[in-house]
Amino acid sequence: MHVKYGEDFQLQLEQLFIKIKCDFRGRREGRFGIPQKCLCGSDVVISTAHAGTDPVRRFYCCNSNNTLDGRHHIRKWWDEAAMMDEVNVLIEKVDELSNKVQVESDANLSNLNGFVSRPEMETLRHNLQKVVEEIEQLKETIRDPNLVEKMKKLEKRDAHRSELQFKIAVVVSVVVIFMALIIWYMK
Fold this sequence. Notes:
Low-confidence stretches: 1-6
Order of helices and strands: HEEEHHH
Shape: elongated
Distance between the termini: 78 Å
GO molecular function: zinc ion binding
Transmembrane segments: 166-186
Number of domains: 2
Organism: Thlaspi arvense
Keywords: Membrane, Metal-binding, Transmembrane, Transmembrane helix, Zinc, Zinc-finger
Number of strands: 3
Strand order of the largest sheet: 1-2-3
Largest sheet: 3 strands, antiparallel
Number of helices: 4
Domain GRF-type: 38-81
């Protein structure tokens, strides 16, 4: 099935993608939300702060090993502010895209009557309804006031799990070394 959309629809779609790309530029550059690239162009990684009262506090930093090069490098705490910026961006985008989907789908479904058979039209309507329901579920998930707290708990659990795995690896290594020394000594 090939459906040809009008030039206005294609132009609106292109403008929407350009707007989304521009909106996310500030996020990529680390001005708000979760940074994707450092100001120097290197990738951003998550590190753990080892000083202060909260030793598992995480932060975003530059992956470059040369931080003394005189260039600006990103160092941003992974906290509620970054997460809330990210959630707010997602809420805006989901609202904008869901409104766009609803308007465009209504217009295009009415235009498709001459091009598409009735069973295909019903399938399209059914699929569109599924998409609208998924968007509503995503909106509810994003607007959950406990979302940041849940993400923090998951992060702490992962940090605890990594610490436990390290401790187990150390104990196993010590046992293996101890057993090797016993075998070597008995020879």
